[in-house]
Design brief:
The chain has 6 helices and 5 strands. It is of the alpha+beta class. The protein has a 5-stranded mixed β-sheet with strand order 1-2-3-5-4, with helices on one face. α5 runs antiparallel to α6. The longest helix is centred in the first third of the chain and has 36 residues. The chain binds adenosine-5'-triphosphate and magnesium ion.
Length: 206
């Protein structure tokens, strides 16, 4: 199956399983709200309408995510550098944060699994910056030296105390992914001094 066919299949699956199921659930909730109104059970009707509101928000996010994939293609189709560029472009556009991307010596093939891990680290780090950092300047740097790749993402935001860090899945997940490939994952942060995430991986076999 070629990439286009694969993407078409995934879109069909998403339309059917995800969107179809979400829309059906919204339709049911709307009918329930209508019935509650008819029975003058206003508080319950309002709670049901609030749920509909939340569900439509979820649907909008899911549609946006699918559109993003269609517009930029998948990582496998466009390659790591273009996929990172597209991701950064999206965040820059939706947040107004000045995000700078630079790459050094980054020619030649790297393994699909290394590409995926590096992309996920950029994705989670940028999501964290937007959610937690309150930064206005971010640098994403990709560097290749021989068969080693170094990725660094730094922001000038609020930083945080690594010892008092609230538990989240993002940082743990990044570390696990990188270490599973025998790579090195580091995070440096201090309140008021921004945050830097560094990941070093081997290019692996292509
Ligand atoms: N760039 C950053 N700037 C400031 N604080 C950060 C940054 N990155 C992470 N943090 C802090 O570290 C915590 C843990 O991050 P982590 O990604 O593990 O979890 P999360 O973002 O809270 O939730 P999720 O599981 O959805 O990723 C965050 O809650 C936040 O307090
Ligand atoms: Mg996170």
């Amino acid at each position: 199956m070629d990439v286009r066919e694969q993407e078409g299949k995934e879109l069909a699956r998403c339309l059917h399983d995800d969107f179809g199921q979400m829309i059906a659930a919204i339709q049911l909730k709307v009918m329930l709200s209508r019935q509650l109104c008819q029975e003058h059970r206003c508080n319950e009707a309002m709670a049901a309408i609030d749920e509909v509101h939340g569900m439509t928000g979820g649907l909008i996010d899911a549609v946006r995510e699918q559109l993003r994939k269609l517009r930029h293609g998948h990582l496998e189709t466009v390659g790591l550098v273009e996929a990172i560029r597209a991701l950064i472009g999206d965040w820059r556009h939706s947040t107004g944060i000045n995000i700078i991307f630079s790459k050094h010596g980054f020619d030649g093939a790297i393994s699909e699994s290394s590409e995926t891990v590096l992309y996920r680290v950029v994705q989670e780090s940028l999501t964290n910056i937007v959610r937690h950092a309150n930064a206005n300047h971010v640098e994403v740097e990709l560097q290749r030296t021989g068969d080693q790749i170094r990725l660094e993402i730094s922001d000038n935001g609020c930083g945080f105390d690594l010892d008092a860090m609230p538990a989240g899945m993002g940082l743990v997940g990044m570390r696990e992914r990188v270490q599973a490939m025998d790579g090195l994952f580091q995070i440096f942060s201090e309140p008021g001094k921004g945050t830097t995430v560094i990941c070093q991986l081997s290019t692996g076999q292509k």
